[in-house]
Write a structure and sequence with these properties.
The protein has one domain. It is globular, with a radius of gyration of 19 Å. By secondary structure, it is mainly alpha-helical. 80% of the residues lie in helices and 0% in strands. The model has no long low-confidence stretch (mean pLDDT 87).
Length: 265
Amino acid sequence: MDSKIRNIFWIFISIGVVVIFLLYKVLVLSLLMNGIPIMREYYDIANLIANVIDIISIIILLLIFKMKVSKGSMKGCAKGICVYGLPITAFSVFYSVQAIYWIFNGHAGLYGHKLVEKLVVNLLLYLTVGIEEELIFRGVVLDCIFRKNKTIVLGCLYSGLLFGLAHLENLIWGEDMNPVTILSTIIFGCIIGFVWSVIYLRTKSLWSVILLHFAWDFSEYCNYMMAIERYRYSGSYNFLVRQIPVIIIMLIVAIVLLHRKNSNK
């Protein structure tokens, strides 16, 4: 098969994989929410259970089709977190700790005695989000499909694009569907997805991007909690403004890493 035709073929295959994955995610969560009435009162727990079901399903399919995902070594994982992803690691840890400290230091009015429970549930929730999404976008789309077809640069760009578009699903579950939120969701998602793809390519460690993904999402959640509490106390807090410089730095790092990878060939 001609290489161009083959690449187009695998692009459509990856689109199909992602679409089926998203439909499956929505179906599992919907079944939990509608089939178990109490889950409607505990959306975070329902989401956590749904994510675990999704992860198990993906792993079973990988085993059935004998698709091997690069796991990487401890050295690769450490390099991804402490070297290539250091700006995200430092940013996420600093702002998570700051937000949690601020809320616990007498500003937990909205959450009260359920604050610890909520943090623990969401810590587990965002860890499963990292595992679930990285298995699909880096493990299946980038590794199992594009790496086998020797289209690494295209794979990183395409995996990032699909990752960004897939996050439009978040808008369905409560955010306003206006041009600004749609565009910002796609742009942020594409850049971050591209960064995760390049780090995975350089480390060959799925756990490095899973942990970076988790740290980023959990810090965003903690600061979302702090933003709500600040508004309760007639204050304001814009975490997005703090994220933008880190995303720009990580985009530059990813481009340099990808260039180095291609230069070494």
